[in-house]
Amino acid sequence: QVQLQQWGAGLLKPSETLSLTCAVHGGSFSGYYWTWIRQPPGKGLEWIGEINHSGSTNDNPSLKSRVTMSIDPSTNQFSLRLRSVTAADTAVYYCARHGNSYGYFQYWGQGNLVTVSS
Amino acid sequence: DIQMTQSPSSVSASVGDRVTITCRASQGISSWLAWYQQKPGKAPKLLISGASSLQSGVPSRFSGSGSGTDFTLTISSLQPEDFATYYCQQANSFPRTFGQGTKVEIK
Questions:
Q1: pLDDT tens across A24-56, in order?
Q2: Is the CB of residue A22 less than 8 Å from the CB of residue A109?
Q3: So what's the pLDDT on residue A27?
Q4: Which residue of B lies nearest to A39 if distances are taken between CA atoms?
């Protein structure tokens, strides 16, 4: 059974860097794309980007290249960094993985609320 | 980006009712569509992929249909545990995009 456990700082000031990590328990680490998705309070879901075990990424242009994703296959962990945060980046951030069909998110972390406030 | 538009934004229904939610893509996405259910404080749960393939363990009262630009999620007989928000998502191209959500509320 695949489980995703995520952690990171929950309160940031404007202009700081958001940093989150997701650990994968169970299942294979290679052969999949590992994804970040966020959800502002009371709003819908936004796909941030994905990374595979080789470090190949796809990301959302709306975040204007503020995103860096990294992966460490030796520890079955992957990470998200989002630079120069503003209040608009306040959201619950989820890590996720697709199932047997690429592109559909079957496994999700528990979510981390990240609040940006001065 | 492909825009996903759901309707209605919310629906009030009673246990046992048939509920239909629609999702329209701004351009054709073949059958590259998923439906998710989200309850308050929880991560979304994948219900349907490939527009109509029910995920293992999902009750058969859920069904999906459509292709191209127009898709439908149907709950044939609403149960108490189905009151939640539902999202569609396209997997045809990057960036992946979601509909704005449809909240199914108790009437």
A1: 999 888 889 999 999 999 999 999 999 999 999
A2: yes
A3: 84
A4: B43
